[in-house]
Structure formats: structure tokens, C-alpha cells
Structure prediction request, 235 residues.
Amino acid sequence: EVQLLESGGGLVQPGGSLRLSCAASGFAFSTYAMSWVRQAPGKGLEWVSDISESGRNTYHAGSVKGRFTISRDNSKNILFLQMNSLRAEDTAVYYCARDMIVGGHIVLVARDAWGQGTLVTVSS
Amino acid sequence: QSVLTQPPSVSGAPGQRVTISCTGSTSNIGSGFDVHWYQQLPGTAPKVLIFGNTNRPSGVPDRFSGSKSGTSASLAITGLQAEDEADYYCQSYDSSLSDVVFGGGTKVTVL
Prediction:
């Protein structure tokens, strides 16, 4: 069974940093591109970042570029999101998601497995 | 303001057919980028319903179908059931923003 388990969320002050983790199991992690998608309270979905299977290629939304960094450790089956210079508008549930293997560029595909999410609250 | 526009809500009686539109522009859907659809039940993570405009993953009932034309896409739910009450989101890619983009979401209510 495919499982994605996020951790690392919590309360942080504006300007602070947080590192999210996503432990993957039940599939060949190193053969899938992965994503982070967030959802502010009561709002819709917003794509945050994508990373290729090897970790060599990364992509970030304009709203987080220069502040967030996606990475992965294929030896431990873990996906990360390093979040710096956090703002109130970054408050959201952050989901880890697996990109479908259907050919084409990874940012174009659907996400076919999702974790339960971890809540990040940025507030003083 | 989402790049992809969806109606905030749609409703229908059990057994009826409802459709959810996803309207984009020439920099996203109109450029030929695929549209995907997700269902988010209350308090849960999203689940993919349709990928690549019209394809259903295994396990998704054939009551759900997707279509795409020009700068828009649609999700149809036939034989509406109480368990279909959820939020639905479309997703594509925008070449002007160089971002993956989602619609604002549509809440489906079964009357």
C-alpha cells in the first residue's frame, strides 16, 4: 500500500524557518517525481514545488521561489521542504504528493497519491 | 483569483447529472496542457479522479468523466450519489507563470 506521511509542521513566527519531511513507503520512491501542494485554511489547493526522480531538477511556484527548497533522500525514501523567511500567507496544510508516471514533464502530470498533510501556522 | 475558473458550487438531486466547468486561457488549457481533476472529501486529502483530460485511474467509478475543448475543460458526474458531496478541483499548467495551476474549487452538494 502506498503511504506518504508528512511531519515537521507547527507554529513559527514570521521570518522563521521550518523543515517538512515526507516519509514514503509501499512503492519504489526513487522512480517517482514528487510534489508539495498546500491548502490555506478554508481555501483551495496551491502547488508549491516539484522534484525529479533523481533530485537533480527542482521547480518552485513563484510565490515561494527563493524562500523554499525541495529536496529528497532516495536512500531513506524521504522528501523534504525547507521553508525560510516564512510569512503569514504561508499558513496552510502542506501535502506531500506523488507525480504520476505517464510520460512528459513532471510539472504537467497529475498527482496520484497524497499524504494526510501537516499544518504550518505562521504567526507571532 | 485563480488562473483556472470554476463555479463555487453546483448541486443536484440523487441520480441526476452535474457538470463542473474549468475555464482557462491560451497560456494554460488552450496551449494544449493536460487537465486533471481531484475530489476532496471533507477533512481528507485530495484524490485524483481524472488525469490527462479524460482518463480515469483504476477504482474510480465510470460515473465520473472528463472532457476538454479549447480553453476549457469539464468534469461530469452522472447518477449523483450522496457520497459525491465534496470539493472538486481542476489542475493544469500555465506557461506564462511557469507554474502548476489549480482551479479555485467547486463544492458539490447532493440535495
Remarks:
- The two ends of chain A are 40 Å apart (CA to CA).
- Chain A has no helices and eleven strands.
- Chain A touches chain B through 23 residues (CB under 8 Å).
- The longest strand of chain A covers residues 18-25.
